[in-house]
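Data availability (excerpt). The following record was deposited with the supplementary files.
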Amino acid sequence: MIHCSTVEERVRIISQMLATPTHGLISQLSRSHHVSRQTLYRWVSKGKQALEEALRTPLVPHQPQDAQALLVLTLLLETHASYREVQTCLRDLHGMDLSLGKIAGIVKEAGVRAQGWLKQQQAPTARTLTLDEQYSSQWGKAYLNVVDAHSGQVWATVPPVPVDGESWMLLLGCNKVFCVRLSREESAVSSLVPDGTPGATSDETWETLEIACAPVIRGM
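Predicted structure:
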């Protein structure tokens, strides 16, 4: 049977029964509100269940845009997760429901900021650059990185490619992209260091790399 009481009245009655479950309270409320005991027991059961569910569900505070971006970028950099994996992690662990487009936008904006920051960096002295091969999950392929040996700043990088001299030539020499980057720096580069990279350490490859970058590298 549907009782004619209002929601506010039911909340008040249920709260009283949950807060002070004393002997005879159900009978007293039944008489004063003209509600059957069975109805009161049903109300208090539903009220208790609703309260437990509300307290069991964690409250997710609103995350400002900067905090969202920090979480997304941290997951990408530290775990190398895909956009979809980042989306799942944020939803399951932080209660944040971000679309794949939103995540991609955060990454793109961060890339623009990083490029702007890099353009402002001018080394005060000639630099030594280290050639580093960071192996990937793809067999026989690696990320090729050109790193400032002193500061750790990455000057150039490419996604997984075959680990050989030709790949290094494509990065440093043949397409001239890296040399153009160097030519825009106010301070020159004093030397290249292979850092044990097998793809760049053969005599023939190393000589070719030195010749390709010689116009912008001192001491070669």
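Summary of structural features: The longest helix spans residues 100-120.
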